Amino acid sequence: MTPLIIDTDPGIDDAFAIALAAGSPEVDLLAVTTVFGNVALSHTTRNALRLLELCGRSDVPVAAGAERPLVHPVPHRASEVHGGDGLSGAADTLPPATHEVGGRHAVTLMADLLRQAVEPVTIAPIGPMTNVALLLALHPELKPKIGRIVAMGGGVRGGNTTAAAEFNVWSDPEAAHRVLSEEDVPTVLVPLDLTHRCAVDAAWLARLAAGGRIAQGLHALTPSYVATYRRMLGEDGMVLHDAVALAEAISPGILRTTACAVEVDCSHGPGRGATIVDLRHHLPTTRRRVDVALDADTTAIGEFVLSRILG
Questions:
Q1: Residues 189 and 151: beta-carbon distance below 8 Å
Q2: Could you say which DSSP state residue 51 is in?
């Protein structure tokens, strides 16, 4: 099994990502760490605890991390998409948590788990990359313990929060720059361009609603998210951004990647938070590259996610 740490800001697509990992025997879910993002840190942390309870994984430790970006305050959250509590206003439909966050900060917990690890650990940041940037900055000696970073974020051809920037990267461009452009840890970036192509439809949602306790619990969280994507897609359905990244973390190679140099715009102009993905193949080999997921069997991704949630 691959040891896995999920760093997250639940968030409805994050909820599906957590459930996917919890239902996948290929990974050993070591911890869930939380970060500000879709909603404030207090909400993302509570949501993570209750989602693990829904999935029967109250054994997984949870630690709260950064409540703001590294440098500049974030202008707004994504409550218009995810609801004021991050889960369509339905967080209280989840079972109450039977465990609490420990006394360690998210970065401390990740560092402790890496020190103890006997196999390379996959870290999956599926919210703003603040906690992971802090981990790499504070504990560079632990980088050899990280097998891969599999991050959801960015867009090759534009964004969803601004014309240029995707939400996770826009929320903390300086952190994303550290993770994607400055470090040498093997990294996979799963951008909007692919996650939108992996959107699930009304039939998928109906199968989810007809499933067991976990599937029905997740389905209850989707109304505001589906309403948002109905306006975007023109039909009932939704985009499982973070679950697509977790599919790659769980099953390496399920997404088809291309090694690219990636820069993050940290300016304060209209391009702030943009990920500039250089698709040219003749670049000097000295430039740092990350594996950008540009293609996949999109139908198979939806089936993979649903099969693990339905059990």
A1: yes
A2: H
Cα atoms found within 13 Å of the Cα of residue 259, Cβ hemisphere only:
10
Q: How many angstroms separate the CA atoms of 134 and 132, rounded? A: 5
Examine the residue annotation and report whether 281 is marked as an active-site residue of this protein.
Answer: no
Q: DSSP of 16-31, one letter per residue?
A: HHHHHHHT-TTEEEEE
* Options 241, 268, 281, 282, the catalytic residue: 241
**Res 90: pLDDT:** 82
- Helix residue ranges per DSSP H, 3-105: 12-22, 41-54, 79-82
> Taking Cα atoms as reference points, which of 65, 56, 198 lies closest to residue 123?
65
Q: What is the pLDDT of residue 85?
A: 82
**Cα 278 to Cα 259: distance, rounded to the nearest angstrom:** 9
pLDDT at 230 over 80: yes
Cβ proximity of 109 and 64 under 8 Å: no
Average pLDDT, the chain: 94
The structural domains of the chain, ordered by start, are 2-310 (3.90.245.10)
Q: Output 201-205 pairs: Cβ under 8 A, ≥24 positions apart.
A: 201/235, 201/236, 201/237, 202/235, 202/236, 202/237, 204/237, 204/302, 204/306, 205/236, 205/237, 205/238
Partnered with residue 292 across adjacent β-strands are: 189, 258
